Amino acid sequence: MTARPPAAVPASWWLPRGIVALRVRIFARVNGEQTLTLPNAAYGPDVFERVYAHPAADGRSAGAALSDLFWYWLSPGPEVHQEHLEPGPRYDDVAATTRRILAGDSAGHAAAAARVFARLLDTVPATRVSLVRLRDLVMPAWAEFAYELVFREPCPPRARELITAHARDVISALKCTGLRHPRRRARLTAYLRERVAAGDVPHALPASLTPAEQVHYLQGTFFNTAVVQLSEATAHVLLALARHRRVQDRVAADPDDDRYLTRVLDETMRLYPLFGIAHRITTGTIPLDADTALPAGSVVCFSYPDYHATGYERPDEFDPDRWAGQSAKDAHHIPFGVAANRPCPAWRISPIVMRAAIREVLRRFRLDSTASHTRSLPNRAPCLLLPRHLPPRPRRLAARRALVRSRDKAEDVTRGVRQLLLGTVMVLHARRQRPAARYFAAHPAGSPPPPGSCPVARPEDEST
Ligand code: HEM
């Protein structure tokens, strides 16, 4: 258990940290003892890079207890989510489809992002200050964007609502701020099933998947991962700008200058990488040093925050200017993963569309936040939006800032307890269901299941 803090330290400070530490221990135990986390005190960033890029670090799901938890969170259809497919022809087919759907010219993607954000921001009052949670604010816009990528047509409100409800449910469960709502997710599956059956998707879907799996593929990769990741990343950048007034003013002074905004994005994703860890299961021996090797079947967790903290002066400081004299390519900076081992297929498009979205926000609003900024962002980034044309009212603003700060601190305490409880419930539930273990027991070589035989529990059957 966590050590009790000195009596003089206020509970709002120690409780969330103590709970986070306890949660980390619970999740570490899920994986058992054959797990290695890199970098660590013995093996530094160079070993991290070498092992991550090693050809034998290529197992994705089979053989790691941690996979049961991820599959549980990502259901329905985790067995065909690109992130979790084992290497092989099905993976190649799925990855090629994702690349095709994401293809397109940068200007077109940026224009689409600016358009969906302009539509979203038209709904935010322009005559008064609004208090929002940035992640909730931006998610419907990214839902529309993802819909347009897949269907190549404007997103109807019903689809936007279904996608947003689904993505919100996945991310709340992943962060243990809420339980899963399988029925909510199933509503999007049903909608997509109809659209795919009607031939409404203008892209060739992976031929190696059954129609039901094609639906799950679209749902997992585009209407969960794309929406969640773009929403989280955008919320991080906007919150960083809201908390660093001078940086924000510099971006707003020349919003079309890509260079400085790119530095802000690079620094935000360095300090707040979306992935805490990525894991792989080794399929062959990987040397760690002259005397030690990782045997096949080991689970390796690659810690992004720890790697991103190595090789920099003042690594805990948010300083976009550190990128003025150095290229992100030459630094310990892998927000989209490593090129040699299944990097993010959206590594090119994501910064382009995020810059367009952020510009659109800054054109209309000044941002201000006194809320805490952590990598996992369980507070969903509370922030004040001040319409740019409104005259400043410093005393009113000071009162609102104080309110944002105290509400965030109070929520931090109750949220921490809630996360611990819900996280434990979900870990135990995932352990009982063992979706990945059951799937691989039925399909030992990661072979595709015959249609209708998938042993992964259907979301409707589950009791959360
Ligand atoms: C700023 C936004 C994003 C960030 C920071 C991000 C980050 C990452 C990272 C670090 C990985 C690699 C993890 C690993 O090594 O296991 C990854 C993989 C992946 N990402 Fe993203 N991502 C973002 C947006 C997106 C979007 C928009 C999509 C939409 C399709 C997407 C789809 C995927 C998929 C399918 C994978 C698995 C790749 C594979 O295993 O082949 N991501 N992402």
From TrEMBL:
Q: Where are the bilayer-spanning segments?
A: none
Family of this protein: Belongs to the cytochrome P450 family.
Q: From which source organism is this entry?
A: Streptomyces synnematoformans
Region Disordered: start and end of each range?
A: 440-464
Q: What is this protein called?
A: Cytochrome P450
What domain of life is recorded for the organism?
Answer: Bacteria
* SUPFAM superfamilies, per database record: Cytochrome P450
